[in-house]
Amino acid sequence: MLLLTAVAAAVMVATVATSATASPLGWLLDAAKDDKPGGGVPCAACTIVLSVVGELGELDDKGIENVVKNRLCALFPETVRLLCDAAVLEFGDAIIDGFLNGDGPDRICHDVKACTLPTCALWKDSSPPAPVTNARRRRRRRTTTTTTTATTTTTTTPLFNPWQWIKHLFDRVADHLPEVDLDGDKYSNTDTLRGADWRGRDCDDTDAARRPGAKVGVDGDAKVDSNCNGIYGVNDATGVPYEKELCANSSQIGVAVLGDSAAAHFHIPPSYFNATAIHTRGAAVFEDLLTRIEDELDLPFESSWTAYKPAVPGGA
User: Residue 102, exposed/middle/buried by CB under 10 A (0-12, 13-18, 19+)?
Assistant: First the structure.
């Protein structure tokens, strides 16, 4: 799946965006729309996420304001929580106002400029959004005040700039190569960010000659594991290397698959969008969110082609 989709699901409420000049967050998500009619992935993500937020507001005894300002961001792991905090600081009031005014997710996402096509709506009973007033675009930012002998200057600054973290993810996986690869052999001993989850674990990240799929050493891997399949050494009873005894007639072949997520078992846990589960279980629902982001919401270790772990029945 495109990393963009992973990021959109990861930042959750942070997918509500404003104009490109309003903030780093708004600029990032405007760029993410990639000129798609209606707003592209950020629009779809915003509408889906705010649908869940609205349901949480109905389940919460204190209502939507408590959900947005106090409960929502506490659901996520720390890095994602910072992104969420930035979004709530900037757009929280507009989201709360929208729900309190009786607006649905479609209209609110148009109001905050995540969506740009009035006739495009997830909910069939959504009416075209009304003209947006300044009051409906209220945003709060942390302010820092500097006092001098002559004047007092107030500077508005974002609480957190999520661009660096998200940009890092784009930069590191755009070429589909591992982030951590000390010997440059395109294999890694770390799991995510195109690491071992995707292509097998490097059993020696300091030696490019030792990697998954490498040719077996001339000694038949009598001393070291060349291809990282966990088999090396010599059978004392026969004097034959285990690699030869166990694998010589295995007819090992490679597989080339066209497509990324199609072959990497793209999967978003249904609980991520189940307001009842979130209301009941809280942060436990999203405890693996950061790991899933780093694997682009794919589970390549459970796919048809690259699996080495059994798939969880019914999806995790």
Answer: exposed
**What confidence score (pLDDT) does residue 138 get?**
43
3-class DSSP state of 158 = coil
DSSP 18-83: --TTT-HHHHHHHHHHTT-GGGHHHHHHHHHHHHHHHHHHHHSTT-HHHIIIIISGGGS-HHHHHH
Instruction: For residue 150, report the phi and psi dihedrals to the nearest 5 degrees.
Output: -105, -45
- Report DSSP state, residue 229: S
More confident residue, 311 or 142: 311
311 φψ region: left (φ > 0), alpha (ψ -120 to 50), beta (else): beta
- Which tokens go with 181? 């690869």
Give the chain's end-to-end CA distance (angstroms, integer): 17
Q: Which pair of tokens denotes residue 64? A: 């939507």
**Predicted pLDDT of residue 13:** 38
Q: What is the pLDDT of residues 281-303, one digit of tens each?
A: 999 999 999 999 889 889 988 88
What is residue 271's predicted lDDT score, i.e. its pLDDT?
A: 94
Distance CA 164, CA 28 (A): 10
